[in-house]
């Protein structure tokens, strides 16, 4: 059994047996009574209610996170499971790059003069750090569990991040227990201590932010611009918050073609390992969407303008924002349906490494940034 949002689900898993593909939120216990394996993404909640008294012996989520699965219950029930850590990390990092560059360019800000606070420096956050360094930003890293584990002096306190960061971006898991819970970590107390007018980006989990607190922070201009890809109570997002954020997208930051493909490949290989069979499927590059080719002349233009133009041509984040707002505006009471539909029909977005850039009359400063972000660059002129 596979969720319909799993890329190449039928092509991959039919090499192992009969495969039924069902829309993510419609997967029910009745579908699983005779299923041996369940492969999903984040829209399907997996728990005792879904799996009890079924034949399912293995559950794989083709996503990096797995807070939508009750893994404790599955462990007790002796149901094997896996996730795909890091599968879409670069996709999310590119989303953050596109958002930060777009807002900075719109506001006339020089990224090289801004400090970015990266909260959570795991698979995604570490890639955000590298891209921010390529952009010339001063980076403040905060990750208490990782700091304790590594004793790396690069990490700083959250208080310092909030005090100094012009841009705040979050890449933490959603946890409610333990020493460092992240549920509603961004509450009124949090926003009282941010640098006034900062840019706030959440592409981690919606529930790390208290919606009312963020609304209040935006009203009071404690937060200047907010970028939200993840929301509380998805897919039933807050229309009030949607009206106030600068960029709003329907949980697609990690939805690059490569990110989704990596998730499918990781789970497929784990299922093969579980059944002790050799993998028989490999992605057919002939079925990959064609990457974008960009031609750009930098003569007489500010490097920030050219860089923003290239990034926007590779990934038009404004279109994702417009699509969500238009869909919700048409039928506000059906915003949950529209939110899911946009994710389900999301067009294939290739990552920067697949994009060829013909860049003319560019200085070494700009060339270094474009190449550092991963683009294939042909310089001329």
Structure description:
- By secondary structure, the protein is α/β, with parallel strands linked by helices.
- The chain has 16 helices and 14 strands.
- It has a 6-stranded parallel sheet with strand order 7-6-8-9-10-11, sandwiched between helices. Strands 3-4-5 form a 3-stranded parallel sheet. A 3-stranded parallel sheet has the order 12-13-14, covered by helices on one side.
Short description:
The chain has 16 helices and 14 strands. By secondary structure, the chain is α/β, with parallel strands linked by helices. Helix 5 crosses helix 13.
The helix count comes to: 16
Unreliable residue stretches: none
How would you spell out the order of helices and strands?
Answer: EHEHEHEHEHEHEHHEHEHEHEHEHHHEHE
Q: Outline, from the CA principal axes?
A: globular
Biggest sheet layout: 6 strands, parallel
Mean pLDDT: 95
Structural class: alpha/beta
**Straight-line N-to-C gap:** 54 Å
Radius of gyration: 21 Å
How much of the sequence lies in strands comes to: 5-15%
Share in helix:
25-40%
As laid out across the biggest beta sheet, the strand order is 7-6-8-9-10-11
Count every beta strand, where a strand is a DSSP E run of 2 or more residues. 14
């Amino acid at each position: 059994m596979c969720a319909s949002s799993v890329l190449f689900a039928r092509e991959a898993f039919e090499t192992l047996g009969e495969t039924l593909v069902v829309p993510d939120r419609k997967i029910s216990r009745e579908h699983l009574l005779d299923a041996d394996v369940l492969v999903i993404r984040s829209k399907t909640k997996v728990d005792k209610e879904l799996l009890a008294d079924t034949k399912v012996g293995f559950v794989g989520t083709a996503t990096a996170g797995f807070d939508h699965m009750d893994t404790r219950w599955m462990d007790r029930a002796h149901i094997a499971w896996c996730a795909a850590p890091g599968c879409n990390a670069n996709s999310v990092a590119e989303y953050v790059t596109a958002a930060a560059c777009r807002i900075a360019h719109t506001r006339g800000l020089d990224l090289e003069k801004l400090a970015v606070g990266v909260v959570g420096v795991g698979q995604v956050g570490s890639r955000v750090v590298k891209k921010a360094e390529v952009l010339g930003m001063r980076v403040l890293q905060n990750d208490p569990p990782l700091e304790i584990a590594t004793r790396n002096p690069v990490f700083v306190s959250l208080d310092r991040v909030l005090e100094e960061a012009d841009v705040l971006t979050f890449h933490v898991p959603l946890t409610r227990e333990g020493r460092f819970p992240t549920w509603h970590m961004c509450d009124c107390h949090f926003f009282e201590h941010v640098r006034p007018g900062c840019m706030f980006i959440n592409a981690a989990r919606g529930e790390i932010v208290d919606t009312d607190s963020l609304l209040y922070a935006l009203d009071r201009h404690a937060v200047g611009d907010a970028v939200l890809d993840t929301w509380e109570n998805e897919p039933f997002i807050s229309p009030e918050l949607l009206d106030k954020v600068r960029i709003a997208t329907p949980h697609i930051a990690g939805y690059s073609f490569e990110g989704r493909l990596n998730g499918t490949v990781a789970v497929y290989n784990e299922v093969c390992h579980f059944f002790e069979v050799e993998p028989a499927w490999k992605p057919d590059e002939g079925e990959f969407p064609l990457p974008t080719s960009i031609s750009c002349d930098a003569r007489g233009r500010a490097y920030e303008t050219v860089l923003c133009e290239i990034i926007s041509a590779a990934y038009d984040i404004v279109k994702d924002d417009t699509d969500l707002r238009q869909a919700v505006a048409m039928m506000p009471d059906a915003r949950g349906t529209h939110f899911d539909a946009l994710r389900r029909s999301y067009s294939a977005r290739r990552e920067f490494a697949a994009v060829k850039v013909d860049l003319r009359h560019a200085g070494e400063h700009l060339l270094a940034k474009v190449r550092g972000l991963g683009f294939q660059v042909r310089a001329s002129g």
